[in-house]
Inverse folding.
């Protein structure tokens, strides 16, 4: 008490006020164990939204070509040739014919066109993709015309010729996902990664108090046993009382 009184007097003389900031500062609460889940979800939301906003939209246009057999050819043969022509739609020879009309280089044309067909119909779908709607339609129509031209040169030997069934038209809506869809996909992906991290993370570090005491079910009872062992028995306690009364 004397020390505290002397300290207060010295503080009054020096004009300094006691600093109670360290005592009033609340202790920082530790972060919850599930914090990676919302953090990863927010990170995925930001990444997906930024990707959807910054990436330019991509358009897709499709042109259809059908394989038609002549009088001496069976329809099943036309179906087989349609499968074969769909495979060579993106070949170097076909793209070389289509490149002048498409208006892009042969290397770019190879990555911006694809051909698909159905096992039940002798029809080939040629799809062109580009950041410009008109250019996407031009790519699809150029490759479809080049495929028809190259196949019709061998129509006398194969008995099957390709005819243009429907030309591609410039699309009005982009085929790439919008910014909202990209943000939703990024959020789901981030939440999934956060959940996987929670499942795969190492176990929680044990406190030193828990290490010293051990698990709840395996606490030692030796001190309790020693305490009860040091207490006198009931008979000894009564004997000591009788001796004291006799004295």
């Amino acid at each position: 008490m004397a020390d505290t009184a002397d300290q207060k007097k010295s503080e009054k003389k020096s004009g300094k006020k006691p600093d109670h900031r360290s005592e009033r500062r609340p202790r920082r609460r530790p972060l919850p164990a599930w914090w990676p889940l919302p953090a990863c979800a927010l990170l995925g939301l930001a990444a997906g939204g930024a990707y959807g906003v910054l990436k330019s939209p991509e358009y897709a246009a499709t042109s259809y070509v059908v394989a038609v057999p002549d009088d001496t050819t069976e329809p099943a043969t036309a179906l087989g040739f349609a499968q074969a022509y769909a495979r060579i739609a993106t070949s170097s020879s076909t793209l070389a014919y289509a490149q002048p009309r498409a208006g892009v280089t042969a290397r770019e044309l190879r990555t911006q066109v694809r051909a698909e067909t159905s096992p039940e119909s002798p029809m080939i779908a040629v799809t062109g993709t580009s950041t410009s709607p008109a250019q996407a339609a031009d790519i699809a129509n150029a490759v479809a015309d080049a495929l028809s031209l190259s196949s019709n040169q061998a129509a006398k030997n194969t008995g099957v010729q390709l005819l243009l069934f429907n030309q591609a038209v410039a699309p009005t809506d982009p085929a790439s996902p919008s910014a909202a869809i990209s943000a939703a996909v990024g959020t789901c992906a981030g939440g999934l990664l956060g959940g996987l991290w929670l499942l795969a993370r190492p176990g929680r570090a044990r406190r030193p108090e828990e290490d010293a005491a051990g698990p709840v079910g395996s606490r030692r009872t030796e001190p309790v046993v020693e305490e009860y062992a040091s207490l006198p028995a009931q008979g000894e306690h009564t004997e000591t009382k009788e001796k004291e009364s006799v004295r």
Q: What stands out?
A: Confidence is low (pLDDT under 50) at residues 216-221.
